[in-house]
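Side project, low priority. Logging it here so it doesn't get lost.
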Amino acid sequence: MAPQLADKPTVHIENWSVVDDVISPAYRELAPGYRLTGLTLKYQDLPCGLIYTSTILRFDPVEWLVETAEAIYVLGTADPRYERWLRTSSVRDAA
């Protein structure tokens, strides 16, 4: 990933999942075009608590970083329901 780190804050997000959007919060694979939702701590002008990010631009699977238009998100622990969905959807998709 070649994010513009100097131009964007880095924010930790916990209990995260990947969804379509606020209106249709169906789980999705971690990929550009979807949105993160989860819990963040206050960082400068970004909100704390439950957030929905803007669209994911890039994902770095080695560093576990997600870039959006506003920030670079460092992925902490995923939502257990999302992890369960990932396991069951992967098994179903592989069949």
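Brief comment: Residues 30 and 60 are 10 Å apart (CA to CA).
Revisit when time allows.
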